[in-house]
Amino acid sequence: ASAQGKSERPSINRSACMGCSLCTKNYPELFEIQNKKASLKEISEEIDQEKLMKAVNSCPVKAISISADEN
Predict the structure, then answer these.
(1) Per-residue three-class SS string for 8-38
(2) Which terminus of the chain has fewer CB atoms gathered within 10 Å of its CB, N or C?
(3) 65 to each of 3, 7, 51, 52, how far by Cα in Å?
């Protein structure tokens, strides 16, 4: 399935991440904690931008960034 237009894809700076798990509380479908660090799950459904922004903004060390894929 190809998404139309731009798709926002989050990435995690694992060296900045301190494993507070706030992103997993805000968006458990997308984020999980692995080895005490946040990581992205592979999800097939559309990313919920509102929940993603909540997770990004909740990160105390700003370890989550969003880049737009322009395919």
Answers:
(1) EEEEECCCCCCCCCHHHHHCCCCEEEECCEE
(2) N
(3) 20, 14, 14, 10
CA atoms within 13 A on the CB side of 10: 29
Beta carbons within 10 angstroms of residue 2's beta carbon:
5
Distance separating alpha carbons of residues 13 and 11, to the nearest angstrom: 7
* Each residue's pLDDT tens digit, 18-42: 999 999 999 999 999 999 999 999 9
Provide the whole-model pTM. Answer: 0.82
d(CA 10, CA 13): 10
